[in-house]
């Protein structure tokens, strides 16, 4: 009898612990949910947000609890999990374990499916068939944008917004992720397709959008473990050449930071997901603080170029074709 009472007490304690865990996750999420600092920084630049943080295109349903969002976020750090999600979206109405084993073992895929079923993100229809709870899903892109925005909140204590739409900007008003980090405006362009799926006009738009919102740091993130040097770096060099002429490779080189991370003048970065996404972003942000933050007067050196609001005062380079970043990269 005493054993049964002890077991009941243990089960009761387990329920209370789960409940407390969920409450703690809700409090942690709420502490970084306030996007007002991001929108304030944009308003200081004369830009008003009219749409942000859409939920209808995410892999998980809008009623996902904070507890499950945290678990989903932690799983999103795994490259194999993100690849499996891509395949689930491809087959969303009907898929089996064997449909998802292009990049990892059936055992790993089964574990992912079990977890997503427990969360209610996918539904098992019997006989080993699954479907996504949210349908239709057109792209993995919005979920990846959500993940990067969450990364800024959870890992860098920085308010952020994703799927951002603004009005009256010359290059179009859709921005993937914008964050307020260390009193700096961060703009991240998120590419979920491999490098071969990224076109030159997308790189041009990336630079033009920098002209529009004047970020302190701009990052092009490609969720791949493939080399950046072969295509994305080349497209950056072509775009810089188009804007600055023949001497662009000398004046504005795309330099390797470490492995497959690259930068232009310490504040424009190319990032992939090899090894670890969070660590890669951390490396770039630390590099900016060490070498690119001189324009804010934090180093005993003359600033090499203005950034953010100061960039409005930038001068055009000889032979430049106009635009903010023609004036500040010097």
Quick take:
The chain is of the alpha+beta class.
Biggest sheet record = 8 strands, mixed
CATH topology of the largest domain: Trna Endonuclease, Chain: A, domain 1
- Intertermini distance: 80 Å
Mean pLDDT: 86
β-strand amount: 15-25%
Number of strands: 10
CATH top-level class of the largest domain: Alpha Beta
Order of helices and strands: HHEHHHEEHEEEHEHHEEEHH
Structural class: alpha+beta
Task: Using brief descriptors, characterize the structure shown.
about 325 residues; alpha+beta; Arc Repressor Mutant, subunit A; 2 domains; two-stranded antiparallel sheet; 11 helices; about 15% strand; disordered C terminus
Descriptive overview:
It is a single chain. 38% of the residues are buried. 43% of the residues lie in helices and 16% in strands. It is α+β, with helices and mostly antiparallel strands and 330 residues long. It contains eleven helices and ten strands. A hairpin with a 2-residue loop joins strand 8 (255-258) and strand 9 (261-264). The chain has helices at residues 2-31, 36-43, 66-76, 79-90, 106-119, 141-156, 200-213, 232-244, 248-251, 277-292, 324-328; strands spanning 49-51, 122-126, 129-132, 160-166, 174-181, 184-191, 217-222, 255-258, 261-264, 268-272. It has an eight-stranded mixed beta sheet with strand order 1-4-5-6-7-10-9-8, with helices on both faces. Mean pLDDT is 86; it is low at 295-330. It has two domains: 66-132, Arc Repressor Mutant, subunit A (Orthogonal Bundle); 141-328, Trna Endonuclease, Chain: A, domain 1 (3-Layer(aba) Sandwich), CATH 3.40.1350.
């Amino acid at each position: 009898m005493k054993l049964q009472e002890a077991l009941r007490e243990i089960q009761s304690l387990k329920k209370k612990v789960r409940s407390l865990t969920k409450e703690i996750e809700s409090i942690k999420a709420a502490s970084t949910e306030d996007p007002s600092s991001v929108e304030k920084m944009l308003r200081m630049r004369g830009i008003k947000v009219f749409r942000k943080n859409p939920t209808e295109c995410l892999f998980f349903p809008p009623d996902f609890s904070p507890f499950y969002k945290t678990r989903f976020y932690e799983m999103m750090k795994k490259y194999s999990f993100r690849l499996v999600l891509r395949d689930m979206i491809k087959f969303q109405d009907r898929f089996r374990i064997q449909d998802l084993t292009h990049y990892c073992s059936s055992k790993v895929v089964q574990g992912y499916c079990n977890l997503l079923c427990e969360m209610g993100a996918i539904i098992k229809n019997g006989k080993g068939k699954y479907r996504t709870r949210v349908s239709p899903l057109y792209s993995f892109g919005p979920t990846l944008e959500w993940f990067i925005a969450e990364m800024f909140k959870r890992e860098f204590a920085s308010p952020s917004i994703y799927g951002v739409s603004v009005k009256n900007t010359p290059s179009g008003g859709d921005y993937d992720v914008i964050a307020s980090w260390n009193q700096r405006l961060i703009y991240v362009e998120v590419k979920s397709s491999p490098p071969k799926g990224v076109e030159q006009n997308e790189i041009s738009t990336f630079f033009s959008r920098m002209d529009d919102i004047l970020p302190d740091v701009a990052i092009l993130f490609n969720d791949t473990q493939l080399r950046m040097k072969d295509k994305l770096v080349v497209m950056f060099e072509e775009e810089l050449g188009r804007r600055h002429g023949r001497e662009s490779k000398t004046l504005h080189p795309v330099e390797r930071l470490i492995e497959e991370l690259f930068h232009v003048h310490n504040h424009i970065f190319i990032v992939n997901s090899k090894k670890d996404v969070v660590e890669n972003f951390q490396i770039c942000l630390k590099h900016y603080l060490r070498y690119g933050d001189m324009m804010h007067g934090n180093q005993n050196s003359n600033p090499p170029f203005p950034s953010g609001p100061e960039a409005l005062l930038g001068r055009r380079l000889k032979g430049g074709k106009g635009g903010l970043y023609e004036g500040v990269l010097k």
